[in-house]
Amino acid sequence: MLNIVEIKKSPNKNKRYRIFLSNGKHYDFGLETGSTYIDHKDKIKRKNYWSRHYTGREKKLIDDLTPSPALFSAYILWGNHTDIDKNIDELNSVLGQEGRELKIGGEIPDDFFDTPLSGSISFPHLL
Fold first, then answer.
1. In this structure, are residues 113 and 43 in contact, taking their beta carbons and an 8 Å threshold?
2. Buried/exposed code over 102-127 (b: 16+ C-beta within 10 A; e: otherwise)
3. Does any domain span residue 55?
4. Which of 28, 60, 64, 68 could bridge across to 15 with cysteines, CB 3.0–4.6 Å?
5. Which residues pair with 46 in a beta bridge?
């Protein structure tokens, strides 16, 4: 089972965080000068982030739960909560569930932020 064991400020001058995983690997992610959902709590900006980043290679990394800056930014900086600790807990929960698939159908719906978190849903728009 893979999980997050630590997160701290990145020593990389252009990145915000460094995340350490139980497999011994670490990843730097998040733009140092960027503002994210955990900072501004703006649901429109969050929806715009997902519209830009949930495509192509990034979408595959997120859907496959591949440890990567894309996955960590999506779940931790732009996840369901404005509290980073809650987003980390949620990602740890998802990473610990073998065989779990995340899928999205087409465009992000207008009610993107109205869907409650429940069952196997990890993001309001990911089923």
1. yes
2. bebeeebeeebeeeeeeeeebbbbbe
3. yes
4. 28
5. none
Answer yes or no: is 74 within a domain: yes
Phi/psi for 29 (5° steps) reads -155, 165
17 lies in a domain? no
Length of the chain: 127
Expressed as residue numbers, the domain containing 89 is 39-95
> Nearest-CA neighbor of 88 among 38, 25, 34?
38
Greatest Cα pair distance in the chain: 40
User: pTM (2 decimals)?
Assistant: 0.77
Q: State pLDDT tens for residues 51-86.
A: 999 999 999 999 999 999 999 999 999 999 999 999
Q: Is residue 112 part of a domain?
A: no
Q: Which residues of 60-87 are buried (b: 16+ CB within 10 A; e: fewer)?
A: ebbeebebbbbbbbbbbbbbbbbebeeb
